[in-house]
Amino acid sequence: MKYIFPALYGLLAYFTIRLLTDSVTGMEFWQRSWILNGIEMGFCIAMGYVFIRACNRLIAYYDRQWQDHFSTGRIGKELLGVFLLNLVVQNLFMTPVVALTDNGLQWFDLADINTIPLFYALIYYGVKRSSAYLQAYIQNKLQLEKITNDKLETELKFLRAQYHPHFLFNALNTIYFQMDDDVVAAKKTVEQFADLLRYQLYDQQEMVGICQEIQYIQRFIDLQKIRSSPRLRLQLHFDEQLQDEKVYPLLFLPLVENAFKYIGGEYLLQLELRKQDGDIYFYIHNSIPAVAPEINGLPIEREKGIGLENLQRRLELLYPDRHHFSAGIKEQEFVAELKLTLQT
């Protein structure tokens, strides 16, 4: 088609002009001299090759000038260039032929010569450019999505990193005091601490198995029990139906960490993680002191809110329209519920 199409293009323009001319003058194409018809068709075929080649070179020139940047100004300049190129080429090849044949150059001949090839030239330009426009549009969309995803990924990493300092401080503080009383227990705590860090630092895949997350929660609870009050009463339930489900990591940790951080009163902590109707339900509540203490002059509810807002933002990024989260104080207990709808 690279070599045949220009000839077809020229013949299409010729026969369209011939049809309109014959309609106006009453002439019949097949009654004319075939030598004359052949000469006219030859000129039109030559016009097709010259125009197509020149148009392709013009488009290549614009590509070098602007590369992949498509704007209204560029498209306007390209259309103007195609219009002027077509005007020169069609008059260079067609006008002399029409002027020297039949009744000479009439006003309707001039109108046909400058209208019909232009119509086909614009169609050719549109078809030629449509793939480039579509590709540029797709590339721009992909680039925008990549920038958006990079921004969200950076925000997620920042939100996850906010959990670590408090966790590190508490763990190291526990180990520090254990060193004076029980070195063996301190070593065991270090091992538990290392396992938790390994999960946080190295298991950075996009999603993890729910069993890994449960194992992480259990290790975290074991570490917290070391520094908790002897009055602590734990009630844990992990649904055995949870096996191969995939979740984003460290979404339950802030709720468990808050429960241990602010537990008081009867020192009761209940945690439940179950599967129901294809969704994952996480429920945790802990008793709190009758009088809420202040930290740095702020009520603990205010400081809790920072962590919960952090978690809420992560859920919005990771589970848009596929989660339900609520948290608050109910009858001397802090209750948090999280529902995750898994993708099928």
From TrEMBL:
**Full protein name:** Histidine kinase
User: Which Gene Ontology molecular-function terms are recorded?
Assistant: phosphorelay sensor kinase activity
Q: Does the keyword DNA-binding apply?
A: no
Identify the residues that the record assigns to the Signal transduction histidine kinase internal region domain, covering every copy. 154-231
Recorded GO cellular component terms are: membrane
Q: Which PANTHER family does the protein's record reference?
A: SENSOR HISTIDINE KINASE YPDA (PTHR34220)
Identify the keywords attached in UniProt to this record, alphabetized.
Kinase, Membrane, Transferase, Transmembrane, Transmembrane helix
Indicate the transmembrane segments per the record: 34-52, 79-101, 107-127
Signal peptide range? none
